[in-house]
Amino acid sequence: MDRIRIVGGSKLNGTISISGAKNAALPLMIAALLTEETLILDNVPRLADVAQLQRILGNHGVDIMSAGKRPGDRAYQGQTLHISAADIIDTTAPYELVSRMRASFWVIAPLVARMHEAKVSLPGGCAIGTRPVDLLIMALEKLGAELTIDGGYVVAKAPGGLRGAEIEFPKVTVSGTHVALMAATLAKGTTIISNAACEPEITDVADCLNKMGARIFGAGTPRIVVEGVEKLHGARHTVLPDRIEAGTYAMAVAMTGGDVQLSGARPELLQSALDVLTQAGALISVNNDGIRVARNGAGIRPVTVSTAPFPGFPTDLQAQLMALMACASGSSQITETIFENRFMHVQELARFGARISLDGETATIDGTAKLRGAPVMATDLRASVSLVIAGLAAEGETMVNRIYHLDRGFERLEEKLSACGASIERISD
Ligand SMILES: CC(=O)N[C@H]1[C@@H](OP(=O)(O)OP(=O)(O)OC[C@H]2O[C@@H](n3ccc(=O)[nH]c3=O)[C@H](O)[C@@H]2O)O[C@H](CO)[C@@H](O)[C@@H]1O
Ligand SMILES: C=C(OP(=O)(O)O)C(=O)O
Q1: Residue 219 domain flag
Q2: Which tens digits make up the pLDDT trace of 408-417?
Q3: Which of 16, 189, 270, 293 could form an S-S bond across to 164 if both were Cys, CB 3.0 to 4.6 Å?
Q4: Which of these three, 238, 257, 283, is where a domain ends?
């Protein structure tokens, strides 16, 4: 199993190109199931989750052609996928494929909308909470599907097709909004989604669906209106840049000190995180190419932050911020409001000498001047990268084990960081 070895203490200086967003690429690939014509996606990141979803779509009979092995006009330019779901030969998504990744469950929406049936295993994904799918089921039921759970599978049937409906989510859910949106595009009549998630990845998917002939209004706001159409057609779409990857590298620079240009990052996608970094003492500036992050000389200041749905501070940056606050000059508080079990990095950060105590959903971090490198084990995707950030700043050697979590969501992380002066390498046993 691969590991990452880091010798900490170097400042980061240079340029990091931001890849396409995992959390947009996955639903965009799934949206290809809605049409028999080809959907072309540019800037798709090369990630384990993308490869796994290719296998899942392949199992439904989808043909995927990948172009883009040649170097593009900028470093780390993503691949271009030509996805053709002309013939869906199987409407079952089996446990062996779906259990590894949360987003793969979302195939249920286009399958039931277009094929009027689907049988999809309950999902897996990062172990950061119970992560139920009751609201996704509620949304599909409102649209007229009949759903049962049998042997770990959700079986959905809509013999006469889906019908437009009013769907009001009792809490903001990204997965629920993706599923409702995709399913409603092919429903008869109008669907109104209230308390919808406003995450940029939802807007990106809605933009792509509209290019495919859908009629979606209000994506990016809490009220989305979808006028169903009979058919969708092919289109070409570029995956938006990964705001979580950009925020992660910004926190790494704030932690180690230095000066890094995040090329291709879009500040409006992570304003709350940039505000927190500024409070913490990082210098953030926006330019034509993206975002520049620096910290030279000044110490790291403590902050008080709660995670929240977009445009609030993202839960997917909570672990990385906690690593940064481990070296702040004072006491910080971070409250996790989205997932009930997303503090599994706390005990691993303690191995570096971080002083963190937990009280319910709030972590109090008493900053320390120096962390020391240690062997650590990543437990989920963003937790893993928080350990990398701590290792970059810590004195001495850090070995991050179980990095397959990292490979789900960070494209060529060790290459990007070593190009900025970090001493970091992958060890393949
Ligand atoms: C692949 C992808 O895009 N993953 C992201 C997505 O996850 P995901 O889409 O799973 O997250 P949701 O927004 O759906 O979950 C938010 C909250 O709603 C709860 N909930 C959700 C669905 C449901 O049926 N019932 C229910 O109670 C969840 O347990 C959680 O407490 O959004 C999260 C919140 O921004 C991010 O951390 C994940 O990186
Ligand atoms: C939690 C994440 O992914 P998933 O929803 O696929 O588990 C994530 O991207 O941080």
Answers
A1: yes
A2: 999 999 999 9
A3: 189
A4: 238
